[in-house]
Amino acid sequence: MELLELPGGIRRLTCPLPTRPGHVHAYLLPGADGWTLVDTGIGLPDAEERWAEALRQVDGEVVRILVTHFHPDHVGAAADVARVTGAPVHQGALDYAQCELVWGNAEWPERIAAWFLSHGVPREITDELIDSGNVYRPFIRYQPHPELVGEGDRLDGWELVAAPGHADGQLCLLKDGVLISADHLLGRISPTVGLWPESRPDPLGDFLAALRRTIELSPRLALPGHGEPLEDPVGRAHELIEHHRERLDATEAALADEPRTGFELSFALFGADLKPAARRFAVAETLSHLERLVLERRAARHDADGTVAYTAPQLGRRASA
Ligand SMILES: [Zn+2]
How far is the CA of 42 from the centre of ligand 1 (A)? Predict the structure, then answer.
């Protein structure tokens, strides 16, 4: 793992990822009693040895671990690092509930496959989803019974800031104008914001509100989970709000009078040339935009015979008239 010194005594450890974007950052935050480690990388088979070796490069002990959200590249090696350091793992209460629901549940791949089927995704793609879900599972070794934390709590002087959207329970840390932003704020990548089974009902609305909150908090530096430090986090938050405003307009423009599923509409927004794994993110992201449009009365949702589909709002009005 590559170690980089950042201002304020913060250290960045970069962990390899077998899938795009190819890396994920963990951060070591200095404190009087030792380091607070933020995020743990994915649980590759040799994660424990990698972490033991990486932590030998820094003086002092890791005294606590925070997992910012339950996605594989952030939570994956939590149990390994806890073993190496003996430090307690902290995780958001909502995030940990979803972590158990998704990774601690052998039924989950079937559950998510059935949900995608109801959004029009063909069975060959949902079957692939079940396979890939089972392939990923061994690489996610979350720590059971973590210390549960949430918005407003403090960890060694850092304030925890809830930033739902990319994940419902996404947490950031803020101190002295430095935001450890995890996947809430990324530089070149627009964080994925998808609707998922059992997720909060309006992830895109959550994300836009969290971005407005970031603008209010006005950090001067953000240290993201992927990519380089952001010197203008407020400007980036404005850009992401504008990006989703355009994507909402494009989603609205793809609606017609006849119902279209999230799967069908994902072609209008993301094109036809996607592998199954990318298609599932495209569908989830299309659905988060559709649900926001429904709440803004710019789209209507129709539930018939176990299939969810969307139209321009006129049909909804006529149907209910
Ligand atoms: Zn990530």
Answer: 10
Would you call 44 helix, strand, or coil by DSSP? Answer: coil
| Centre of ligand 1 from the C-alpha of residue 166, in Å | 9
Return the half-sphere exposure (C-beta side, CA atoms, 13 A cut-off) of residue 180: 29
Name the residue with higher pLDDT: 245 or 317. Answer: 245
Ligand 1 centroid to 165 CA: how many Å?
13
CA torsion sign for 77, 26, 97, 92 is positive
How remote is the CA of residue 308 from the centroid of ligand 1, in Å?
A: 29
What pLDDT is stored for residue 321 in this prediction?
A: 41
Q: Give the dihedral sign, CA 306/307/310/313.
A: negative
pTM: 0.95
Q: State the Cα–Cα distance between residues 95 and 108, nearest whole angstrom.
A: 16
Read off the tokens for 306: 């176990």
225-237 per-position pLDDT tens digit: 999 999 999 999 9
What is the three-class DSSP state of 32? Answer: coil
Q: Ligand 1 mean position to 304 CA, how many Å?
A: 35
Position 309: which residue type?
A
Distance in Å, CA 53 to ligand 1 centroid = 22
- Ligand 1 centroid to Cα of residue 255, in Å, is 31
Residue 105's Cβ-count burial label (10 Å; 0-12, 13-18, 19+) is exposed
Distance from the alpha carbon of residue 184 to the mean position of ligand 1, in angstroms:
9
How far, in Å, from the CA of 318 to the mean position of ligand 1?
Answer: 43
Name the one residue in this structure whose structure tokens are 């407020």.
234
Instruction: Render pLDDT for 18-75 as a digit per residue (tens, 0 to 9).
Output: 888 899 999 999 999 999 999 999 999 999 999 999 999 999 999 999 999 999 999 9
User: Please, which residues bridge with residue 62 across strands?
Assistant: 35
How many whole angstroms from 140 Cα to the centroid of ligand 1? 13
Q: What's the pLDDT tens digit per position in 106-143?
A: 899 899 999 999 999 999 889 888 888 778 888 999 99
Number of CB atoms found within 10 A of residue 177's CB: 13
